[in-house]
Amino acid sequence: MRAVLFPGQGAQFKGMGRDLFGRFSALVRTADRILGYSIEELCLRDPGQRLAQTQYTQPALYVVNAFAFLAAQGAGGAEPEFLAGHSLGEYNALLSSGVFDFESGLRLVQKRGELMSRAPRGAMAAVLGLDCALLSDLCKKAGFSGIHPANINSPSQVVISGAESEISRVQKLIEAQAGARYVRLNVGGAFHSPLMQSAADEFQEFVGRFTFQDPKTPVISNVTARPYATGDVGMQLVRQITSPVQWNDCVRYMIARGVRDFQEVGPGQILTKLVTQIRQEAAPIVLEDVSRVELSLSSSDAAKSTKTADDVARHVGVLPPTQSETLTDNRSPQASAAKPQTAAELRPSPVVLHDVVPPRRPADRIFGIDPTDLGARSFRDEYGIKFAYIAGSMYKGISSKELVVRMGRAGFMGFLGTGGMPLEEIESDIQYIKAELREAYSYGCNLLHSPESPALEDAVVDILLRHRVRFVEASAYMQITPALVRYKLSGLSKAADGTIVRRHRIIAKVSNTEVARAFLQPPSQRIVQSLLANGQITAEQADIAGQVPTADDICVEADSGGHTDQGVAFALFPAIAQVRDEVVAHRRYHYPVHLGAAGGIGTAHAALAAFMLGADFIVTGSINQCTVEAGTSDAVKDMLQEVDVNDTDYAPAGDMFEIGAKVQVVKKGVFFPARANKLYELYRRHNSIDEIDPATRRQIEEKYFALSLDQVWEETKLYLSRKSPTELDRAKQSAKHKMALIFKWYFARSTRLAMTGVVRNKVDFQIQCGPALGAFNQRVKGTALENWRNRHVDQIAFVILEETGELMDSALRRYAEVRDKRQIAVPAVA
């Protein structure tokens, strides 16, 4: 197999393309017209030494690479099996694969070079003799937080980007390492790093004006080191500006796919030398056969369908077109032991679906609704995801780091469930996610309102800012807090043309119109000025604050598992949509505020209802709790896979016990809902523990707590003395508050028992869940997906969206038929 490679910036030299310009005079004239100068004169004579300037280098290389490929094909060269390019060269790979024409590509490259040339000043350096992981670790330990890998060219060659001062200072650190070399590059920008964000933001708007075709020949993306996916071109080109070039992995992937002949087309032999180096130094990627699990909704129809989850994934462009293979890194046993779940293991694994996703029938799919068509394209583009589908957060890490990584790699987005997690665990999980997803995929974290502990909320925001987490799901907020505003405003800046750049995005989960209205307003000036006075935001950010809503997007949460206001989606969504429209029109925001739907979404029918209501995206929760990746016990998952739509009930929320807030929980096979409600009734009727009659007290101690109330209070006092002395002081002053704290001990214990899977205490498990899971269980009954051990969060998402597309197509077809009949029945009037 053969691959054609196109070089990028750094390969240019005066005189390049000398033998080509005369052969393609029509294209030369096109280039001159678009650029406004002679491309031939620039390449051959380089007046004013402009060929070294980014805004001129990039169009020049694009043109010469394009001519070189045309010349090679004209000489009778066979069509390659793969195409790839280094940085700028990737545009030539896309051109050669028919994604866009010569003129469109040149306009894109011209704009890209212009924007990158006027991005904030920075610097780059090549580091030889150190691998990327070791280099990153050295920089981190030495405090060089502004150093970013820009090009991972081979196992022992990494180009770094950053501020000029940091790139200069890090030289001594690198050269102190045995065998390492440092070479400063003659560039004025920190390319392929977060310092290019302003360029990427402007480029995103420009890219939106173009229409791209799907590649005819697989093009390997610099960002993902995998083939470009269907409909993925614009997003990947924008990401490429701020993401490291994964050249080492691009070549390893092509070698694994059987490529033996690499042909460099364009000036120089830089990439050819890198391929040789990679072959000598890099551990191979191994293609492994993966077993397939057959699923069937109907045993009589099982032999009629051959649809696979990979087919779904490949149709929407998430996986490359392989047969029965998946890619895994060939890691050492030691590495496997240290990190039992690799990134490759988190990719969608092949599963044969028989009627779970009905076979595609082109004749029936008149409207051709695809999973990538559902929801708002602008939402997908803003969050850098392929599908308008999010796995929402579930507290205490039930929405685990593995779940988030798996969703991200598949083109979705997941939110880490930070609520109730220790701060050090939150930080550790974010570091894991960043290492696995790099900057190629999207992810987010939950930010839970903590009215009793504002310091905790601030501490979580500190972690989010420290790790540059771009997306946050804000939940349980009844009012806007300084911590939330600080996160929002810390991501604001202005581009060179004065447009507002929003680095941080907040999706606010709301279940009433007033909270939605508060999130749709700009942050309170009182909070803004306080943050400014404390030095927590800049003057520019304070100035911009009045021009943007507090939340970038809103998720309307109807009745759901866990905390719930028991809202009805069909009433709540239109009401909040109207509030959104009113506020956006009044405030004249420059960006759309998207509206998503959550609560009760466990099947394609529910997803269809949400999209037909006008949802720009959907958020799932309960169904993800019963998957391999969910961070809860196997005992809980065994119970959840048996839940039906009627197997949930409402109980008091332990964290909001005194005000009677509700959570929706599993009632099948447990006593928790009945016992929790009994405790709340006792709290309402009595002013102290001492008022409870002896028989009831004995029942609570023996059946509910398995401890005396005095023992529970001693445990509670010990905990509060360390965590919240003020709460302990309140309890000493108020017998009713002391009673509440004793009862809340049961809620904490019930959660702990469930998450650790202490089966002997199964009747006291608190499992927060909504009926959506029961609906999903019913849908997959009798299939391999009936067993949670075969459920992966991304595969469930694919199944739901694929079937939603079919349902929407069918619905549109029915209404189209009604319309056509009416048109036929209308008599002529002229």
UniProtKB/TrEMBL annotation:
<dbReference type="InterPro" id="IPR050858">
    <property type="entry name" value="Mal-CoA-ACP_Trans/PKS_FabD"/>
</dbReference>
<dbReference type="GO" id="GO:0004314">
    <property type="term" value="F:[acyl-carrier-protein] S-malonyltransferase activity"/>
</dbReference>
<dbReference type="InterPro" id="IPR014179">
    <property type="entry name" value="PfaD-like_TIM-barrel"/>
</dbReference>
<dbReference type="Pfam" id="PF03060">
    <property type="entry name" value="NMO"/>
</dbReference>
<feature type="domain" description="Malonyl-CoA:ACP transacylase (MAT)">
    <location>
        <begin position="5"/>
        <end position="323"/>
    </location>
</feature>
<dbReference type="GO" id="GO:0006633">
    <property type="term" value="P:fatty acid biosynthetic process"/>
</dbReference>
<dbReference type="InterPro" id="IPR004410">
    <property type="entry name" value="Malonyl_CoA-ACP_transAc_FabD"/>
</dbReference>
<feature type="compositionally biased region" description="Polar residues">
    <location>
        <begin position="321"/>
        <end position="335"/>
    </location>
</feature>
<dbReference type="InterPro" id="IPR016036">
    <property type="entry name" value="Malonyl_transacylase_ACP-bd"/>
</dbReference>
<dbReference type="InterPro" id="IPR014043">
    <property type="entry name" value="Acyl_transferase_dom"/>
</dbReference>
<dbReference type="InterPro" id="IPR001227">
    <property type="entry name" value="Ac_transferase_dom_sf"/>
</dbReference>
<protein>
    <recommendedName>
        <fullName>[acyl-carrier-protein] S-malonyltransferase</fullName>
        <ecNumber>2.3.1.39</ecNumber>
    </recommendedName>
</protein>
<keyword id="KW-0012">Acyltransferase</keyword>
<dbReference type="GO" id="GO:0005829">
    <property type="term" value="C:cytosol"/>
</dbReference>
<dbReference type="InterPro" id="IPR013785">
    <property type="entry name" value="Aldolase_TIM"/>
</dbReference>
<dbReference type="Pfam" id="PF21607">
    <property type="entry name" value="FabD_helical_ins"/>
</dbReference>
<dbReference type="InterPro" id="IPR016035">
    <property type="entry name" value="Acyl_Trfase/lysoPLipase"/>
</dbReference>
<feature type="region of interest" description="Disordered">
    <location>
        <begin position="299"/>
        <end position="345"/>
    </location>
</feature>
<keyword id="KW-0808">Transferase</keyword>
<dbReference type="InterPro" id="IPR049489">
    <property type="entry name" value="FabD-like_helical_ins"/>
</dbReference>
<dbReference type="Pfam" id="PF00698">
    <property type="entry name" value="Acyl_transf_1"/>
</dbReference>
